[in-house]
Amino acid sequence: MPPGSALPPQKELSASYGVTLATLRQALRQLENDGLLSQQPGRGTFVAEPRAAYRLDSLRGFAEDLRAQGQTVSTQILGQGVRKPPASVTALLGDAPQMFRLERLRLVAGRPAVHQLSWVRDPGLSGTDLSGTSLYAALADRGIVVHRASESIRPGALDEFTGRLLSQTAGTPVFLSERITYGLDDTPLVLDRATILGTAMEIRTERALTGLSLQWISR
User: Fold this and answer.
1) What is the pLDDT of residue 54?
2) Can you tell me the distance from the alpha carbon of 97 to that of 193, in angstroms, rounded to the nearest whole number?
3) How far, in Å, CA of 101 to CA of 119, rounded?
4) 86-111 burial: b if 16+ Cβ within 10 Å, else e
5) Nearest Cα to 98, choosing from 79, 125, 137?
């Protein structure tokens, strides 16, 4: 069944497979946990849209990550230019009279999936076409080498403004990402704040004794 298709009513399914409603509901919960189904109270059960994976174990741009997985990614530039940064940005990137501000909408398989707002200490990117070029690649072209990044991700809900951009209703589950990227001398270069649709993306990483280290922080 294609994504978005509605499954038959539960009573019909239980009769078709010769199982009790309790067994059927357990199976539906498992399929939903596996990301194959979406159960919507008052509406029914639907075949889920495939989710792209947002990986935490690589230092690449968002679009590069997804293209490496075979996903079709496009970018809409919502705004770019040199601006005076707000205090919440200078607190993380350091004081500067002007920075480059870049606002993008990421579409995965033609569907809006991520709203991304970036602040860059180097204001010289204002004339660069970033619709098909990653921000990291554009910095490299200017001789700026990216060394490492620190990222925090927390759950949240869409506000009305971002909901309109992502074609979703306010309150839809999202991931809120904040990433600071550093240069070779550990100077903070880029601040990325992204709203990632929880219905379109999942977070995935690999663990190894000598590999990625994760910290669990209670709030």
Assistant:
1) 55
2) 20
3) 5
4) eeebbeebeeeeebbbbebbbbbeee
5) 125
The pLDDT value recorded for residue 139 is: 86
Q: Residue ranges of the alpha helices (H) in the chain?
A: 10-17, 21-33, 62-68, 87-93, 135-141, 160-165
Rg (CA), the chain: 21
Token pair recorded at residue 15: 């009769």
Please name each of the domains of the chain with its CATH number.
Answer: 10-47 (1.10.10.10), 52-204 (3.40.1410.10)
Low-confidence ranges of the chain (pLDDT < 50): 217-219
- DSSP-based three-state secondary structure for 67: helix
Q: pTM, whole model, 2 decimals? A: 0.68
User: What pLDDT is stored for residue 50 in this prediction?
Assistant: 62
